[in-house]
Amino acid sequence: MTPFSVWSESNTVNLGLPIGPTQRELTAAFPQKAEMILQRTRPPLLETPFEVFDRGVFTPNDQFFVRWHWAVIPQQIDVTTFRLAIRGHVNNELSLSLADVLAMPRVEFAAVNQCSGNSRGFFQPRVAGGQWANGAMGNARWTGVRLRDVLDRAGVKAGAVAVRFNGMEVPVTDGAPDFLKSLAIDHARDGEVMLAYLMNGEQLPLLNGFPLRVIVPGWYSTYWVKMLNDIEVLDKPDDDFWMTKAYLIPDTPFANVKPGATDFKSVPINRMPPRSFFTNLTDSTTVKSGATVPVRGIAFGGDCGVSKVELSADEGKTWRNTNLGTDEGKYGFRQWSTQATAPRLGRLSLQVRCTNAKGESQPSEPNWNSSGFMRNVIERVQPAVV
Amino acid sequence: MSKSVIRLKKAAIGGVTGIGAALILLATLAGSAAQAPSTQPATGTAAPSSVSAGGITLRSVSVVLPESQRTFAGGGAAEAINKDCLICHSAGMVLTQPEMSIAQWKAEEEKMRSAYDAPIDPKDDDVITDYLAKLRLTNAAAAYQQISSHQADPEHGKVIAEQGTVGGAPGCAGCHALNGSSEGSGAFPRIAGQSAYYLGKQMQAFASDLRNNAIMSAIAKALSANDIADVAAYYAGLDPPFPPLPQPAPGLVLDGERLAAAGDSNKGISACENCHGPSGAGDSPAIPYLAGQYAHYVASELQMWRHGYRKTSSEIMLIIAGKLDDHEIESLAAYYQQLRAAAPISK
């Protein structure tokens, strides 16, 4: 069955998931958030309604997706008492105030933040987990300080291996693993990883990680630790649950394995591959017979820029380039646009494919793994001709 | 709850959060009505404190996150899942999972306990997976009804029931009677008032040989998908009287009633009521009613499951029936046959 999306005018939305519960409630009940698709109330999982992505390459803060692991989330942040600790394998352990952080050299870039399990609901065979459609992603202009500068201020000791991040969310039970993520020391010090205090020019919504969030451009959102208040430099590899047991992918191209397979090596999820989407057409759009139809959408290259976005109107036999919009930065969304001619009868069948600056393209067959991670298959849309 | 301690917040900034969450948690567990999260305004203070440097100002934030008052429906059958699962997360994501096997749900349950320290009482394990297995059936029913495009015609269904089809299917009425109460021997189930979804699903299972029966498989194969939907809609809409039958031995009925209501924890047998409802009323459209069903039919189907001959969808039935002995099967069948008043008419 071809997935389709119906954007509802009522307070529910049909995500077009293949068989099974596909209706979700729309809610504006969350603080600092406009209308979102409710996947779970506590801890919150809120998905961006897909039509938002047609309005521009920057996702508004109040409709940016939300995903928390644990239910005990601070609901009050006092910026005057907040401290960021930098500790572990460093010369000088630090406790920085927000004023300290704001006073440090500032950097800014656009980057896509995408959940590892974005689009999990389209996996077949289906897998357990948050049944996201394609809206567990967003692009923002992030402003903050380089992690490298913060680490240099503390003075990383020789022999450091990794940098581990801890935010202020806490498990409900005391035996559950606190949510910790780490990056290899060289990655952490690459000058790109950022601690952001602004998102699209404003302080982050609490649910997106106020007051500080790790930004790991080109990598999946699991590393973008929210409400960051603790950085630990490790002198040995991180053996914590969240790096060794959870968020693992098969070490295969596109993290793809056959359902049921077990003969593969697992590694922590890491960089994002390219993706592209239609934003102005769905399977429930209607187009006029023989009409010239404007076709547009968004694309991103993953851990590098977009090289080209191509459209196929013949089931992938031939592809032609589309026009790319303004380049707002290699890690961000890039708008693409073109036109297509509707047939006289039936359906207009279109596919879109992004190739990134490294020459990597989206696959024509969907990947599969038991966690529902890293979907990036070529998207298809089939508006009906009337 | 005995093993795990509900954690108040770790040392951090400005947190009444932990206590708030714990209080709301208690409210959630105590609540019964399924409700959407309520809109709660952020608790605004008059002038939030702020920090400025380098031309940027950050202001303190105080919000209230909505809490879900929704619990898993189903009364006693849902007690364990409400008690053990809602501590850490609300129900919504569970209710929107795709179809998963009992083994997959058990793996999730084990992950929650061993990796995430969920305080799931081991003796609740089967009750929770039974509940989730039932959820799978009800989800499948809902999804089917969502994608089904054929507008069933019960009048045409009645014609098929009475006369059969030109394609060679005989009329259903010969065995099941035109009113769906069947001919009284118990060899053929009462189908009147069973949901159209359930009846259609069984017919499709006969047609695809997922469910084996020499008579029904041949008939189902001779009917089109639309014919099946029409005849299912016809029988679903009937509510005829029950034919008189001999009373089973009272002791047998009592044994059956006990097992149906409470199961047998020593043998790992779940209560039938967990899915088939109190007094065998079923849970339309996914779960068939058993009240008033012929004992002969119920017993023979349980034997089919017990020995692995019936494989239609209900993995849970394979598991439970596999643990039943002949006496238990006989007593359950006897109990449900005499429960006539509870048989519902499906909508």
Notes on the protein architecture:
The complex is a heterodimer of chains A (386) and B (347). Chain A has 386 residues and is mainly beta. Helices cover 5% and strands 33% of the residues of chain A. The longest helix of chain A has 8 residues, at 147-154. The radius of gyration of chain A is 21 Å and the shape is globular. Residues 1-9 of chain A have low confidence and may be disordered. With 347 residues, chain B is an all-alpha fold. Chain B contains 15 helices and three strands. In chain B, helix 6 (154-163) crosses helix 10, helix 8 packs across helix 9 and helix 13 packs across helix 14.
Largest interface: A-B, 70 and 67 residues
Broad CATH class of the largest domain in chain B: Mainly Alpha
- Classify the fold: give the CATH topology of the largest domain in chain A: Sulfite Oxidase, Chain A, domain 2
The CATH topology of the largest domain in chain B: Cytochrome Bc1 Complex, Chain D, domain 2
At CATH level 2, the architecture of the largest domain in chain B is: Orthogonal Bundle
Integer average pLDDT of chain B: 82
Q: Can you give the helix content of chain B as a percent range? A: 40-55%
What can be said about the biggest beta sheet of chain B?
A: 2 strands, antiparallel
Q: Sheet with the most strands of chain A?
A: 5 strands, antiparallel
Strand tally of chain A, please?
28
CATH top level label of the largest domain in chain A: Alpha Beta
Q: How many separate helices of chain B?
A: 15
- Series of secondary-structure elements of chain B, N-terminal to C-terminal: HEEEHHHHHHHHHHHHHH
CATH superfamily of the largest domain in chain A: Oxidoreductase, molybdopterin-binding domain
